[in-house]
Amino acid sequence: MSSRFETVPRSTVVRDSRWRYRYAALDDDRLRRSIHRSGILTPVLLLRRGAHTYAIVDGFRRLEYLQETPFSHVPARIFEPDSLDEAFWWGLQINASVRPLTVVEKAQVVQIAHTDLSSDTITRILDFLEIPCRGSILQTYREIAGFPEEFKQYLHQYHFSLRQIERLRALKVEALHPWIILARRLRLKAQEFLTLIEWVGDIAVREDLSLDQCYERLEINKILKPEWTVQQKVSFLKQLLYQRRYPVLTTIRSRVTKAVQEVRQHSPLPIDIDWDFNLETPGFGVRFYLEKEDQVYTLQSLIKNPAFTKKLIQLFKLVGTMEED
Description:
Elements: E1 3-9, E2 13-14, H1 28-38, E3 44-48, E4 54-58, H2 60-66, E5 73-79, H3 84-98, H4 103-116, H5 119-129, H6 136-145, H7 149-157, H8 162-169, H9 173-186, H10 190-206, H11 211-218, H12 220-223, H13 230-245, H14 247-265, E6 271-275, E7 284-288, H15 295-304, H16 306-319
Parallel strand pairs: 2-4, 3-5
Antiparallel strand pairs: 1-5, 3-4, 6-7
Helix pairs in contact: 1-2, 4-5, 4-6, 9-11, 10-11, 10-13, 13-14, 14-16
């Protein structure tokens, strides 16, 4: 290996993120505290640029945290200017052994490799990452690398799989922008976001809107009250989108719920009524809770009560139909 260990002044390291592909990890605070206390312990990988200047290939976060400290020197493995392939390959193996790369990080590696590295190294890297050397999967990774930075950070943070990201590719990335910002604020996980976008997509098609226009039309920023908790905001948003996506079903649900309440009000006995909330199965179940023997006679009278029977028949008609009045 054409490299050697040195300790160099941190001022000689050019702060260039050209070969950076790692995103923030959950243990960043621990790493920061360690560097603030003891400096950099594991050497960073540097590529010599001139007599006394270096480009960083691996160890970006460590160098950033060192800038916050009084430590003036950086322990490093120095590679010669013509050894970028070797330096990058070495750093990739180290990184992958510490923490597996997310799909977004792999996409960044793929993009860097195709831009700056030799064809032999590209092949070796793709094989290491288990990515085909050609075809649609490779193309997907290259497209991911071109996503807006905020989008990539979100996909990385919540560990979107390649298949989940592919489901988003059919949509215009720029139209997703406000929804991505919202998803990060609400800390929506991958499947939660995919479900949300599916609902929004249905609403947009029905109302002939783009995804970003749908965001504006729903006035999301206004309805999510700042004093609400994240969970309250998520719950309200799901309810709002469901009602907008299924207006007829929402109306019928409301009427069934009201009818159920009226049946309970007309019953002198504790009563539970079960019905299919999605209204895919007609009918409903009725359960009475009897605490005393004489309540059997109360139940007998209740069933014969025309007013109570009428309420049950009204409820049956509502549950048994999907037609809107």
